[in-house]
């Protein structure tokens, strides 16, 4: 099947206030647009209640981008059609011919909203029977080899067979700015954690440290942020305080953790507290070295 | 088999300084003694290079205690014997009769240190053959149904079939004191993370909050710490600062995280920074609510 559409889900947002939800959604849409633009992917974007639809001729490339945009919980390359049962049936048959034979099992999952002269159950039964006749495959609702999803929303229907997991979290920019002091690979992971929760980072690097790891990281996660270099000669704390104020940062993030190798981490932290005006966050503080390494491999 | 001994492993300690390693081990031994004493379990404890041996008539109960002592990576109920190959053979036969038949597969893992007139390989071959003759089971070194471990250390040998995982981390008290402000179940989890890394907590509770959850938590993890009640009437920050100083705390721990439900977490954190003299640590800061719930179930 040749896909032209991706359905983007961003989870059940449990925000009580409608205003916040709207703001959150708008930021997510903008982040998606920017990420696709960065990779030169032509697309048309449409927003509906709880869903974003992205139309493009480069679906594979778009999927690769979207899976790394924070806030997205899952994506499905899909076929769009109208809500006539014959049209839905035609497409599902194409899918099942590709994917099924007499040795395989399948399940049909139907969701429906709007007014139609059939129920979800009707669709499932009719199409299920057709697939059985066509392919001799068997129905297995609990543990099928192949799942076929049909979502009927008013006069449009969406058919897909995959739900690719995203990283979830919150869209970058829904929380405040943080100043990420990059003095090690661990500090990149520490900022990943807060960016994943919606904070927008400003990166502070020492002239000595090579920027290519950081730039690859930003490119991979579609983080479009300032990188500021500081000098080793002047007082580092003073520079941090000044840059944080200038850039409206609400906190500093550090990659420090309590590890067996380094002693007196709590002393260092007390020192930071005295010297740095803003609060310092340590998302890795209680992580073991081995878990940090594993996570670093995961985030690329 | 009736066990009378537990082998306790505390991982490959990568500490460079011998002094630190010795301090770390002594604290672990004391924590183990206290935990067993709390549950009224009679025992005799012996320390060797990299291992702790615990002898008791109540092995099952001891295992239950030890699996929750931080710093321990794994435990094995074991049979101790001398290092004559006939003795080792006698015990392994008892094990294999209990556990094996012609439909099962097994592997023998031998470790040896000291001077003996046989090699590890000799032991594995001889005992492997005997088990095959006795039970008709088959050898499978990569994915056996049953593993038999033989550790020969000078004139003593240890035979066991189980390695029960501990929580690892660092023994309570190897890092500094922290003041854990318990205002929610999340704050208990936050302090768990730091205690797991070796910090010793002092608990601060509000009169309104029930202590039984906290007490069950302390009992479960063998945390023997002060609980201090504060009043709602006076300035909370002033009380925190005072109690932290009196108890030699190096940091405060809070269960705050950036979640979709609560807004302006960074504002709260800035407020803490201004009002509290010590650094505040937020181990859950970048965790999602669902992960926090999952971990809370895990820690009991």
Structure write-up:
Two copies of one chain form a homodimer. The first copy, chain A, has 300 residues and is an alpha/beta fold. The first copy, chain A, has three domains: 5-80, Alpha-Beta Plaits; 84-154, THUMP superfamily (THUMP fold, 2-Layer Sandwich), CATH 3.30.2300.10; 177-299, Rossmann fold (3-Layer(aba) Sandwich), CATH 3.40.50. Chain A has nine helices and 14 strands. In chain A, strands 1, 2, 3, 4, 5, 6, 7, 8 and 9 form a nine-stranded mixed beta sheet that branches. Chain A has a five-stranded parallel beta sheet with strand order 12-11-10-13-14, sandwiched between helices. In chain A, strand 5, helix 4 (120-135) and strand 6 (138-139) form a beta-alpha-beta unit. The radius of gyration of chain A is 24 Å and the shape is elongated. The mean pLDDT of chain A is 90.
Features:
homodimer; alpha/beta; Rossmann fold; 300 residues; Alpha-Beta Plaits; five-stranded parallel sheet; 3 domains; 9 helices; THUMP fold; nine-stranded mixed sheet; elongated
């Amino acid at each position: 099947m040749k896909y032209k559409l991706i359905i983007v889900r961003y989870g059940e947002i449990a925000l009580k206030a409608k205003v916040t939800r709207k703001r959150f959604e708008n930021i997510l849409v903008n982040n998606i647009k920017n990420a696709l633009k960065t990779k030169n992917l032509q697309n048309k974007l449409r927003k509906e209640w709880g869903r974003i639809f992205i139309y493009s001729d480069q679906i594979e490339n778009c999927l690769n981008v979207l899976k790394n945009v924070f806030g997205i919980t899952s994506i499905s390359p899909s076929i769009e059609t109208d809500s006539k049962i014959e049209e839905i049936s035609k497409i599902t048959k194409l899918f099942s011919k590709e994917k099924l034979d007499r040795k395989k099992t399948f399940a049909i999952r139907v969701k429906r909203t709007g007014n139609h002269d059939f129920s979800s159950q009707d669709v499932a039964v009719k199409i299920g029977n057709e697939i059985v006749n066509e392919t001799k495959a068997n129905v297995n609702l609990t543990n099928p080899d192949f799942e076929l999803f049909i979502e009927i929303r008013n006069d449009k229907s969406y058919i897909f067979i995959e739900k690719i997991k995203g990283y979830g979290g919150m869209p970058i920019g829904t929380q405040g700015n943080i100043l990420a002091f990059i003095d090690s690979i661990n500090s990149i992971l520490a900022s990943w954690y807060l960016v994943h929760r919606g904070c927008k980072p400003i990166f502070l690097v020492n002239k000595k440290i090579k920027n290519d790891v950081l730039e690859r990281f930003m490119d991979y996660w579609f983080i479009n942020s300032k990188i500021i270099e500081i000098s080793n000669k002047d007082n580092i704390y003073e520079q941090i305080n000044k840059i944080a104020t200038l850039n409206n940062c609400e906190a500093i993030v550090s990659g420090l953790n309590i590890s067996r190798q380094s002693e007196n981490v709590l002393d260092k932290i007390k020192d930071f507290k005295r010297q740095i005006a803003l609060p310092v966050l340590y998302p890795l503080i209680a992580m073991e070295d081995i878990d940090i390494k594993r996570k670093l491999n995961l985030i690329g």
